[in-house]
Structure formats: structure tokens, C-alpha cells
Structure prediction request, 40 residues.
Amino acid sequence: MTTPVSNERDKRIGERDTRIDVLRALALLTIFVDHVPGTV
Prediction:
């Protein structure tokens, strides 16, 4: 048994905002650097 995938979902995947991904990456990098021992 398979579940049909709607075309609506495919459209939403293509509409990702790159700016949000960049900000998320910067936030994760900041958190990582903050948790590394010996950093400022």
C-alpha cells in the first residue's frame, strides 16, 4: 500500500527561501563555536 503524494507538496518544496536557510546556518555555526572548548 502506498500513499499518493499531492502536487501541492511538490510546489511548496520548490519555494524554499534561501535567506532563511542562510540565517539558520549562521545560527547553528554560532552555537557550535560557542560550545567548542577554548574559544572566546
